[in-house]
Amino acid sequence: MNKCIILLNLLFVVNASLLSNITQQKYVEDGIIPDVIDVAPSKKFTVIFDSDKKAELGNHLTPTEVKNQPKIEWEGLVDPKKYYVLAMVDPDIPSRLLPILREYKHWLIGNIPGNNFSSKDAVVIAPYQSPVPPRFTGFHRYIFLLYEQKDFLMFDEPKGTELSPKNRPRFSVKSFAKKYNLGDPIAGNYFKAKWDEYVDEKNLIMINDLFKGLLNKTAT
Ligand SMILES: *[C@@H]1O[C@H](CO)[C@@H](O)[C@H](O)[C@H]1NC(C)=O
Ligand SMILES: *[C@@H]1O[C@H](CO)[C@@H](O)[C@H](O)[C@H]1NC(C)=O
Ligand SMILES: *[C@@H]1O[C@H](CO)[C@@H](O)[C@H](O)[C@H]1NC(C)=O
């Protein structure tokens, strides 16, 4: 009888720790641990696009649905007196099978006071660049992470522009967090997406921009 109770208790404890966080478990199932981070955040924040679609721990969205910068809602998770980093990366670049350019930096902002993204303190290191997963490369994982800074920071990172791939591939959010002493992410969320027609449209926009830049250079 006693043994039975002990066993039941033990099962409960094991179960509780294994399933302690379904959110955390998802990161393991989807290989985000160890591909991107070492410790899964137990909390999630809201990432909502103007298509009304939300990231929901690995749901499938289309490049069309996520083409514009989403709204991030993490009010209850942050302290307005502290500074935060928002990062969005794609580790599956050019594909999850052969991620030789891992990770692609899609979005990176530092010194966000609490949830005030419009604060003058916030530094946009790389503005939001929407996913353009190449055709035939399957689903890519797009991961959003929230880190808490110990202090206001001076970031000496190469900046990205909205349309250029410059300074975006071969990023490591883990190394970035280490460099700025950010610890593990305190919250996150992610979705998956694969090629749709919008990818071709967006690539044309980016190529056009590149040519305009080149033409400008030759003109001067
Ligand atoms: C697990 O994650 C949820 C969702 O973010 C959070 O509300 C909850 O407190 C976490 N539970 C544990 C046991 O850490
Ligand atoms: C956010 O930052 C802006 C600009 O620095 C400031 O004017 C505004 O009052 C802040 N909003 C909140 C809610 O603190
Ligand atoms: C090209 O030059 C024009 C005029 O100087 C400028 O407005 C435009 O932003 C430049 N385009 C690029 C892509 O650099």
UniProtKB/TrEMBL annotation:
Signal peptide region: 1-16
InterPro entries: PEBP, PEBP-like_sf, PEBP_euk
Transmembrane segments: none
Keywords, comma-separated and alphabetical: Signal
UniProt cross-references to Pfam families, sorted A to Z: PBP
Domain of life where this protein originates: Eukaryota
Xref: PANTHER family: ODORANT-BINDING PROTEIN A5-LIKE PROTEIN, PHOSPHATIDYLETHANOLAMINE-BINDING PROTEIN
Record protein name field: Phosphatidylethanolamine-binding protein
Native source organism of the sequence: Brassicogethes aeneus
